[in-house]
Amino acid sequence: MDTNQAEKGIAIVTGASSGIGYELAKCAAADGYDLVIAADEPEIEQAAATLRAMGVTVEAVEADLATLDGVDRLVDRAQATNRPVDLLMANAGRGLGEGFLDQDFAEARRVVDTNITGTIYLVQRIGNLMRSQGYGRILFTGSIAGFMPGTYQAVYNATKAFINSFSFALREELQGSGVSVSCLMPGATETRFFERARLMDTAIGQAKKDDAADVAKIGFDAMMDGEGGVVSGWKNKLHAAVANITPASILAEQHRKMAEPCSAAD
């Protein structure tokens, strides 16, 4: 059974208050899916109100998805709809710039807990529901950052390397189950990510970025087509290809030029 069934289930989207997550939710709503959306900020309610104008039902959950309790709250709300989960778009993520030794460790841990721990816990819970029902589609938001050592973004890039790898492993494990797993690997995208990660005083923070709606559409279509992974944009595809054949030491040096604070580089 696939997600083109006569009566669709729901789509869950995390990190949906803005950026790629919000645009993924719009893609699902445009395709006729009722939504359960989540983020760790009150703006999720405003996003829900806008999405409801597209003619779908939207449940908004303000929860800290870096915690197991927050993920449980989201899953409980989804199950309360008494509808199967057709789509899970695990998009919630957090970045952090500056040198690792200069970071507040609580902030660095929060990046790990959001990008990895909360994400894989959510996927395990919803993935088990999907496997039991015999169908479903899961989309991770990874990143081309996962292809290179992240000088001045060391923790973030490492978490995305984990997600990129994990998604393909899980995809293979679920072969024949009716559940597909895809990974969207965007490059720098025009969202609030760089401001929140304190990366505006960097070359990458000041550079032109991809449009979040375009990136989300590429990822949504890849998920619906059952693709394993997709890098959005031809420039990002080129960067990913080059990263695969470039020594890590050189990639780390190149990343320094992109992510080192301008004040430190001067």
Automatic annotation (TrEMBL):
InterPro entries, sorted: KR_dom, NAD(P)-bd_dom_sf, Sc_DH/Rdtase_CS, SDR_fam
GO molecular-function terms, A-Z: oxidoreductase activity
Keyword Transmembrane helix annotated: no
Keyword terms of this UniProt record: Oxidoreductase
Top-level taxon of origin: Bacteria
Domain Ketoreductase positions: 9-191
CDD domains, per database record: SDR_c
PANTHER family xref list: ALCOHOL DEHYDROGENASE
Protein name: Short-subunit dehydrogenase
Organism: Mycoplana dimorpha
